[in-house]
Specification:
Layout (H helix, E strand, L loop, with lengths): L5 H21 L2 H9 L2 E3 L11 E3 L6 H29 L8 H29 L36 H11 L6 H24 L5 H31 L6
Antiparallel strand pairs: 1-2
Length: 247
């Protein structure tokens, strides 16, 4: 019953996010270890510096996996448009046929999509973090130095690795399980979560993100969703306490 309250989820998920960030910040070798598992080192061209590491992430060249990644990339946006259509349809009802609770749930979902994967991740964190992607670093065939998660002092200038926008989109889809009737959630949750984990795994396998980027990106959308739900609940409680104004 305690976890039926959005503010409890907000506190729990926020603490988990910061603890996870601290884990990767103080133990950057975890990121390197996982990325190295997908990296294939090859001989460098003649004349290359002795210290240079050459290689590639072979999964990034698999056409079927690339196609799957494109599908998963656009999936959150398509789902958001479907929810928007349902919201508009619901707003066209009046009186007894109008479902205020459904409107609120759709509004929470769309607001969290805009504030999470788009604003927080793509507009803010990926702009200021400065963290190069694995394939851009000198550990994995690139030229830029490796930086730990959360350092915010890397050499990347835009669209950086910290944190993953695609993983954030996948995390947002998982949050949509709460839109389902309670009797369906336990049955639907495992396959939905499994499908949503494919996108973060591909980003790591392609060398586009470190494991910390995708885990923190995935969890960030859950934090934002809980924050938006908490805000909606607080404003609803305030409205109930304020008496109607006589005009």
């Amino acid at each position: 019953m305690l976890f039926n309250k959005p503010h409890v989820w907000l506190v729990t998920l926020t603490v988990a996010w910061w603890l996870l960030l601290a884990l990767f910040y103080f133990n950057p070798q975890f990121d390197v270890f996982v990325a190295r598992a997908f990296f294939q080192q090859v001989a460098c061209a003649e004349g290359s510096p002795i210290s240079k590491i050459c290689g590639l992430f072979p999964y990034a060249g698999d056409s079927e996996l690339v196609l799957l990644r494109k599908f998963l990339f656009y999936l959150p946006g398509v789902i958001a448009l479907c929810i928007l259509a349902r919201l508009i349809q619901n707003l066209q009802h009046h009186g007894a046929t109008y479902n205020a609770a459904q409107t609120r749930r759709y509004a929470i979902a769309l607001t969290s999509f805009a504030l999470g994967p788009y604003v927080l991740v793509n507009l803010i964190l990926k702009t200021i973090s400065g963290r190069p992607r694995p394939y851009e670093t000198d550990l994995f065939g690139g030229l830029q130095p490796f930086t730990a998660a959360g350092t915010l002092d890397g050499s990347c200038l835009k669209n950086c690795s910290f944190i993953s926008g695609e993983a954030a989109g996948a995390g947002w889809i998982v949050c949509l399980i709460v839109l389902l009737p309670p009797r369906l959630r336990l049955a639907v949750a495992p396959p939905v979560i499994a499908i949503c984990l494919v996108s973060p795994i591909l980003r790591v396998a392609f060398g586009g993100h470190y494991i910390s980027d995708v885990l923190l990106g995935f969890l960030s959308s859950c934090v934002v969703y809980a924050a938006v739900a908490t805000y909606f609940q607080m404003t609803q409680c305030v409205k109930k306490r304020v008496p109607n104004t006589a005009l």
